[in-house]
Design a protein that fits this description.
The chain has helices spanning 16-52, 57-67, 71-87. The protein is mainly α. The protein is built from 3 helices and no strands.
């Protein structure tokens, strides 16, 4: 879709209710973006603390990612990975 295909609505065509809803959505999005940045900073700090104590942060990230998956899905992925590595002569 290009700009030429988009029909624009003049701002004065929006009702006050619609304008207020738009403001509300923009404010909520901005607040969530701020919270997301704060959480990202907190995660960075936690990983930094773990690294300072000698933990491998790459391994920690992998553990966190794997724990999000149910065990059956994880086992299926591991079996497929083993199959591919075996086929390539890596294991």
């Amino acid at each position: 879709m290009s700009f030429e295909d988009v029909e624009f609505v003049a701002p004065q065509a929006l009702t006050e209710t619609t304008k207020e809803k738009l403001r509300s959505y923009v404010t909520r999005i901005e607040n969530l973006e701020t919270e997301k940045a704060e959480v990202a900073d907190q995660l960075k700090e936690v990983y930094g603390d773990a690294k300072a104590l000698g933990f491998d942060t790459k391994a920690l990230r992998t553990v966190v990612r794997l724990r999000k998956k149910d065990s059956k899905t994880r086992q299926e992925e591991e079996m497929m990975l083993d199959l591919y590595l075996l086929a390539l002569g890596e294991i």
